[in-house]
Specification:
This protein has about 190 residues and is α/β, with parallel strands linked by helices. The chain has one domain: 3-Layer(aba) Sandwich (Rossmann fold). The chain contains 6 helices and 10 strands, in the order αββααβαββββαβαββ. The radius of gyration is 16 Å and the shape is globular. Bound molecules: guanosine-5'-monophosphate (5GP). Guanosine-5'-monophosphate (5GP) binds next to strand 2, strand 7 and helix 5. Guanosine-5'-monophosphate binds next to strand 2, strand 7 and helix 5.
Length: about 190
């Protein structure tokens, strides 16, 4: 997606050789116009499938998922929670995820009310690195007996193993921009 690629090159900040900071339009301040184009593009790429839910994980995935959902037909967004919450029933699907950015494990949970065996679920997240967040979300969908339509990612880091892990397991991955390399403060994107 050219608009997104242009923005990454213009405003993305390299943190060492592995992390890309995009706080000015994706992870802190949100460019809603850009998000609308991102949402439209996800819909275009997954148009062939009848999606009944979009699933993401708090916090950064929520805004992307909600804007994208407006381009689908009456599709609710469910976001997995990272905190054990008293307002979450004890009837939850839960999965353990290793965080790439925080270097620790956490549990994601979705109330069983919001995923069911009749759902076809599109998973959306802001970044794909080693695939742990996406695999955790897929685990929740599988626990519910629902179908995974695919994984939609705003920015994939192609030098990490996420795509390979997901594709090996048979899941479709659609990334709107792929970072080939981060080197000496420069971000290099795939064509
Ligand atoms: P994974 O689970 O695929 O290893 O990492 C994906 C998750 O870690 C995303 O949900 C995202 O929040 C965070 N993440 C991984 N790499 C980056 C990065 O380079 N920049 C930012 N902003 N977040 C990242």
């Amino acid at each position: 997606m050219e608009l997104l690629k242009k923005r990454i090159l213009q405003d993305g900040v390299a943190m060492g050789n592995h992390v890309l900071k995009v706080d000015s339009f994706l992870n802190h301040q949100i460019d809603v116009e850009l998000f609308n184009e991102i949402g439209r593009e996800f819909q275009r790429r997954f148009a062939g499938q009848t999606i009944t839910k979009i699933l993401t994980v708090e916090a950064s995935g929520i805004a992307v998922a909600c804007i994208a959902a407006q381009y689908f037909q009456h599709v609710p967004v469910v976001f997995a929670k990272k905190q054990e919450a008293s307002n979450l029933s004890d009837q939850v699907y839960a999965s353990n995820v290793f965080s790439f950015t925080k270097n620790k494990n956490y549990v994601i949970r979705v109330d069983k009310k919001y995923l069911s065996a009749t759902d076809t679920v599109l998973i959306i997240d802001d970044f794909l690195a080693n695939g742990n967040a996406a695999l955790g979300l897929i685990d929740l969908v599988n626990q519910a007996g629902a179908q995974v339509a695919g994984v939609g990612i705003v920015i994939e880091k192609g030098f990490q193993s996420g795509r390979q892990l997901l594709e090996e397991r048979g899941y479709r991955v659609e990334s709107l921009a792929i970072v080939k390399e981060i080197k000496d403060g420069t971000v290099i994107l795939s064509d």
